[in-house]
Design goal:
The protein is α/β, with parallel strands linked by helices and 487 residues long. It has helices at residues 2-17, 26-52, 61-81, 87-90, 93-117, 126-157, 171-182, 212-221, 236-246, 287-308, 311-322, 371-378, 386-391, 414-417, 434-437, 447-462, 466-480, and strands spanning 162-168, 188-194, 226-230, 252-255, 269-272, 275-281, 328-334, 340-346, 396-398, 408-409, 412-413, 430-432.
Length: 487
């Protein structure tokens, strides 16, 4: 155990040193490599054409464009068939160059065979073909060597390292740790071992392990990509309890195969350092989904802020004329990963009656609301400053609505009223959401109202797509700003 503790300290120290750098997504690296190499193949053809054929008489350049695009399409498919875009291939220069060369040679042979059987070889310049294939191979080799060197830098910086926390004890954990250490090239870093029974103390032979509460705090403080539950396969109830306690965290949760898999009929299988693991829950909005969501938020928030900019001074003047106090109201609310953020709103209550923790939810005909505030609330205009939160990266345009820290339903705190309440914080909160466009907004007088909100929020997270976001935005624009629950 002493050697294990020393190793974990070293790994945790390395993780903390790289904390200031953004992680690099393997999926995005592979996708961008495929796109860049396709462009390189087309560019190599254009270069060969400009060198040999640009001034040649009687050459129809459209014919060469057709062959180039067809060759790029064949290359894209053959590269995938050869697994040339697998990340573990791209991070090994020899294997990467070998697979690339084999795939590109297959493309050349395929085009030669097609031209032979269609009797079209005389229609194209052989010199151009040789220049194209040679320059394309050179470009692809440069790209792959450059990417390999860049990946080595990212690995040293910890940006390509997957941070893994393990929950379990006994022989299963030791075997898992030994396996991960034997696959050091996979870039897996163990940040800690945790035990769901650690709350009960040690066994007298060694100090107590860190408990699940410590794991939750670790995830709050620093990036953790994956939690592996490594408990004996016979302890099904214990495993399910651990999953229940961790499922609200924005991380991938993986389970070593065992009888508990019968309780997870929809679970898929993934591989980490060549070890098969059951997918219990997937971190939402990863890789290209995350990129698409960020583009959607930044682009739309800028366009909307530019469009509504003339409205801001008018609303500010009305608020000032109606009652003394600041124009904007900032309230602490729970954001992504249960972190507190300052949510901006136009002030709609008398300044002296402000309720920064939302100890008392706003009610219909609430005397704390000003005359202008009631009008702003009716049309949800008080929410407009939250596009600044979106621009700051704290919120999304579409997502679960952020709730104040003391918000209650029927006198019960939200996280106490709904068992899975914290799971809605696995994504950024939004200005509008699936619950809101389905009528679940306004006061929460009953537990059923907050339960329905959470149910809709979780359904949105599980089924996210750009199409769903557009649908929610459209429904918000045509009817979501007003309604019987807007007050």
């Amino acid at each position: 155990m002493k050697g294990l503790a020393s190793s974990l300290k070293t790994e945790s120290r390395a993780a903390s040193e790289s904390r200031g750098l953004k992680p690099v997504s393997e999926s995005i690296v592979c996708g961008l490599t495929a796109a860049i190499e396709t462009i390189a193949i087309v560019a190599a053809s254009a270069l060969a054409y400009s060198i040999w054929l640009v001034r040649a008489p009687g050459v129809v350049w459209t014919d060469y464009i057709f062959v180039t695009l067809f060759g790029a399409l064949v290359a894209a498919n053959l590269f995938h068939v050869a697994h040339a875009y697998r990340f573990e291939v791209l991070t090994h220069s020899g294997e990467s160059l070998k697979r690339m060369t084999a795939a590109w040679s297959s493309v050349a042979l395929a085009l030669v065979a097609i031209s032979f059987f269609t009797k079209s070889s005389e229609d194209y310049s052989r010199t151009w073909s040789v220049l194209w294939f040679a320059s394309a191979w050179t470009a692809l080799a440069v790209i792959r060597v450059t990417l390999y060197l860049k990946c080595q830098t990212w690995i040293r910086e910890g940006r390509l390292t997957r941070s893994v926390a393990i929950v379990g004890d006994g022989a299963v954990v030791h075997r898992l740790l030994d396996h991960l250490r034997s696959r050091s090239e996979s870039g897996v870093r163990v940040v800690g071992v945790f035990n769901d029974t650690a709350e009960h103390g040690g066994n007298g032979k060694r100090p107590p392990a860190r408990d699940l509460g410590a794991l939750v705090q670790l995830v709050r403080r620093q990036p953790v990509d994956t939690i592996i539950i490594a408990l004996p396969p016979t302890e099904e109830v214990r495993v399910l309890n651990v999953i229940d306690r961790l499922k609200f965290l924005p991380v991938d949760i993986r389970l070593c195969p065992g009888p508990v898999s019968f309780h997870l009929e929809r679970a898929g299988v993934s591989h980490l350092a060549h070890l098969p693991l059951l997918n219990v829950l997937d971190k939402p909005l990863t890789d290209w989904q995350s990129v698409a969501k960020k583009i959607e938020d930044r682009l739309l928030s800028v366009l909307i802020l530019l469009a509504i900019a003339p409205v801001f001074p008018a609303i500010a003047a009305l608020i000032k004329l109606d009652s003394p106090g600041p124009v904007l109201f900032r309230q602490k609310r729970y954001g992504f990963n249960n972190q507190l953020i300052d949510v901006y709103k136009f002030r709609t209550m008398h300044h002296a009656a402000r309720d920064e923790k939302a100890e008392q939810l706003t009610l219909r005909n609430d005397p704390r609301v000003t005359r202008v505030g009631a009008l702003l609330r009716k049309f949800s205009l008080d929410e407009l400053p939250q596009f600044l939160n979106v621009l700051r990266g704290e919120m999304s345009i579409v997502g679960p609505r952020p709730h104040a820290i003391s918000a209650k339903a029927a006198g019960t705190l939200y996280d106490e009223a709904v068992r899975d309440y914290a799971a809605r914080h696995r994504v950024k909160p939004g200005i509008t959401g699936w619950a809101q466009v389905n009528g679940w907004r306004g006061e929460t007088e009953t537990l059923e109202q907050i339960r329905q909100r959470v149910e809709h929020d979780l359904a949105y997270i599980d089924n996210w797509s750009l199409r769903l976001d557009i649908k929610i935005i459209f429904r918000t624009v045509i009817g979501g700003f007003t309604g019987k629950n807007a007050f």
